[in-house]
Design goal:
Largest sheet: none
Low-confidence stretches: none
Radius of gyration: 18 Å
Structural class: mainly alpha
Strand content: under 5%
Order of helices and strands: HHHHH
Helix content: 55-70%
Distance between the termini: 27 Å
Mean pLDDT: 81
Shape: elongated
Length: 106
């Protein structure tokens, strides 16, 4: 879930220039902690920019890092390990089902 949220935030920041275009985007990406102490005019609003605070950025990066730590052994085993054992294939299937990786045939 954290990976999908981070990907959606990346899309908003990259392709929408950080603009909160809908009420749904505002509700999804607004961060009251990042807005603490700001004047009303500087707070997030539809048509405005999403505010990223240091705490939110660190939480997001920590969530992504935990996914990498979970995926790394299975991916390593799949690529460099002794073979494509049942445990490895099951772990890869779980990661793909959770949309944490995208497996592609070679």
């Amino acid at each position: 879930m954290a990976v999908m949220w981070a990907r959606e935030l990346r899309h908003l920041l990259t392709h929408q220039n950080g603009e909160l275009r809908t009420q749904g985007a505002l509700e999804k990406f607004r961060d009251a902690e990042a807005e603490a102490g700001r004047e009303e005019i500087d707070r997030a609003y539809v048509g405005g920019k999403v505010h990223l605070g240091a705490e939110r950025v660190l939480r997001t990066l920590d969530a992504l890092a935990s996914v990498v730590r979970a995926a790394d052994p299975a991916v390593w085993s799949f690529v460099w390990g002794p073979g494509r054992g049942e445990d490895c294939m099951r772990a890869l299937a779980e990661l793909e089902q959770g949309k944490l990786i995208e497996a592609a045939a070679t």
